[in-house]
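Ticket #374: bound-state structure for zinc ion.
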Amino acid sequence: MKVFTSTLCTTMHTPQYEFLSGAETHYYESPERREVILKYLQEHPDSFEITERVEDFGLDPISKVHKKDFLQYLEHAYEEWIEEGGHPNGVLPGTIPHYKVARLGKQKASNVLAKSGEYCFDMSAVITKDTFKAAWNAAQVTLTATKDLIRVAEQYEQSIADGATSRENPPGLYALVRPPGHHAQTDVCGGYCFLNNVAIATQWLMDQPNLKGKDGGPKKIAILDIDFHHGNGTQEIFYTTSNPLYTSLHSNEDYPYFTGSDLEKGEGEGLGFNINIPLPHSTTDDEYVETLEKLIKDHVLPYDADYIIVSLGVDTYKDDPIAGFLVTSDAYPRIGNAIRKIGLPTLFVQEGGYCIEKLGLNVGGILQGFLAKA
Ligand SMILES: [Zn+2]
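RESOLUTION: The complex was predicted; output attached.
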């Protein structure tokens, strides 16, 4: 499996601390996360081919998903923060416009202290000096992998036509990036996320003029979000459209708390194309894998997509320090294999997972499970 990554994902975004349950703690979405996953991949050269080749797709695909004023804010927030006397650890909102208080549109944010609340929904997305560059880089790495997805998908179709392979052996690619993306909305950051890598990749695929789906329209994409937390950002970005299909398995009693209900089904043209499956903290290996298989059977396969994009989080792991079902490392190869059985070209994009000791093994388990023939 080809792996796309960049050293800048480690070096450019390094907040020193965050606040969890009222306490100051180290920043769980740490640079070390990428390092331990990379180490696992490097130790398995028969399965993974790592490249740091990153193409620059520019601002255009990012601005198709995120609003211009939000992008300008992210780019300049730290500089303005420091000018106004903010702490050098990074931009952290002190006042967030609560929906019972704010009258947005009437009272626009005038300085960075106000903007930090307007453009962020929690206290975990700390903006440091080079955070925008890191998030930009993560988006470009994901786009580079997405461009390659088109190539391997075409090869796959050709091999099937030639009788050289069957639909049971789909190609897979992996974008090892940070910061993650699935909590980032159109114009709000939060949950360690600034730019929504999966949404940017999905929109870019649909915008390729020469890439036609089975009905002559854009290619159809099914997003499978298997992070422990609900991907409120991806849901919001695609809530009113029937392409992509957004599906998510996540905790029903955890962050981000106010989204992820199974009653959130999409709106307008998007009604029925947003599938949330909330699960309790007590979820075990068998329960998780069986629910995923049912989700695939009931929703992903009938959608008849051309590509699968996976928001790959392993904070479902039982010992994850900020999350966790009762899921063990044994479940991850089974999860990967269930995704393989969909039979479609698949791009995995790294989201959460904070148990440093098992992070490489658990991410590697999903990818190896995808590669394993039944
Ligand atoms: Zn998560």
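RESOLUTION NOTES: Residues 39 and 360 are 7 Å apart (CA to CA).
TICKET STATUS: resolved
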